[in-house]
Design brief:
Layout (H helix, E strand, L loop, with lengths): L10 E2 L18 E6 L3 H14 L1 E7 L2 H11 L4 E5 L1 E2 L2 E2 H10 L5 E5 L4 H10 L3 E4 L4 H12 L4 E2 L4 H6 L2 E3 L5 E3 L2 H11 L4 H8 L3 H15 L4 H10 L5
Parallel strand pairs: 2-3, 2-4, 4-7, 7-8, 8-9
Antiparallel strand pairs: 1-3, 5-6, 10-11
Keywords: DNA-binding, Phosphoprotein, Transcription, Transcription regulation
Pfam families: GerE, Response_reg
Protein name: LuxR family two component transcriptional regulator
Length: 238
């Protein structure tokens, strides 16, 4: 029943065996999932949990290379669950790739609660960050939240994520930045122009300018380089 290689069948829920109350609200049809993790036992446990939750098909991969091949073969699934510590690359890179290919929902599974990894995962486009040490109930809650269109952070990393949006301004007073403002600042740090930032985030150049103006007011400086420096020192962007 297991499936990792592209030539093998994926795990599927037998027709007619799924209780109606197990299908994630508001979806009425079975959902499809890609699980990427290099530990077979953990991958099997996650797949079994997803089938119990209402997954119709669970595709599996053990590496970046297998995940890319599987994604190319299947096209976007309803959900992807990705390990950050893959043997041939970083899971953050895979999050970015899948999002650019139209994958709508991505859950990151990690062994670390490192603040940079948590923020990087959400900035790359993940909707949830779960720890491998999490209880089955937490994993289920996180997946259901994402399937319903929400976002979720493991309870033990939620404070880290919240703290990561606070940047001391020029007067050293902590200022809260929104998720969109952090995204804009990261692209500024990457050397993007307002036009390029707008194209990357699907915003008008005027909206980007408005975001930068708000960031400047919050941080007490209109200088792009200083805004980026303040955010980097706070660990909000890389």
């Amino acid at each position: 029943m297991a499936a990792v290689g592209l030539g093998q069948a994926a795990r599927t829920t037998p027709a007619g065996t799924l209780p109606a109350n197990m299908v994630p609200h508001p979806r009425e049809e079975l959902f499809t999932v890609l699980v990427v993790d290099d530990h077979p036992l953990l991958r099997e446990a996650i797949a079994a949990r997803l089938l119990q939750m209402g997954a119709g098909t669970v595709h599996e991969a053990a590496s970046m290379a297998e995940a890319r091949a599987r994604a190319l073969a299947t096209g976007p699934c309803d959900l992807a669950i990705l390990d950050l510590g893959l043997p041939d690359g970083t899971g953050i890179e895979l999050v970015t790739e899948l999002r650019s290919q139209g994958w709508p929902r991505i859950v990151v599974l990690a062994s670390s609660d490192d603040p940079y990894a948590v923020r990087a995962a959400f900035q790359a486009g993940a909707q949830a960050y779960l720890l491998k040490s999490a209880s089955p109930m937490v994993v289920t809650d996180g997946v259901r939240r994402v399937l319903d269109g929400g976002v979720y952070a493991d309870p033990s990393v939620a404070p880290v994520l919240a703290a990561g949006t606070r940047v001391p301004g020029t007067d050293n007073t902590p200022r809260e930045l929104s998720g969109r403002e952090v995204e804009v600042l990261q692209l500024v740090a990457d050397g993007r122009s307002n036009k390029e930032i707008g194209e990357a985030l699907n915003l008008s150049a005027l909206t980007v300018k408005s975001h930068l103006s708000r960031i400047g007011r919050k941080l007490g400086t209109g200088d792009r380089a200083q805004m980026v420096a303040l955010a980097m020192r706070a660990g909000v962007i890389r």
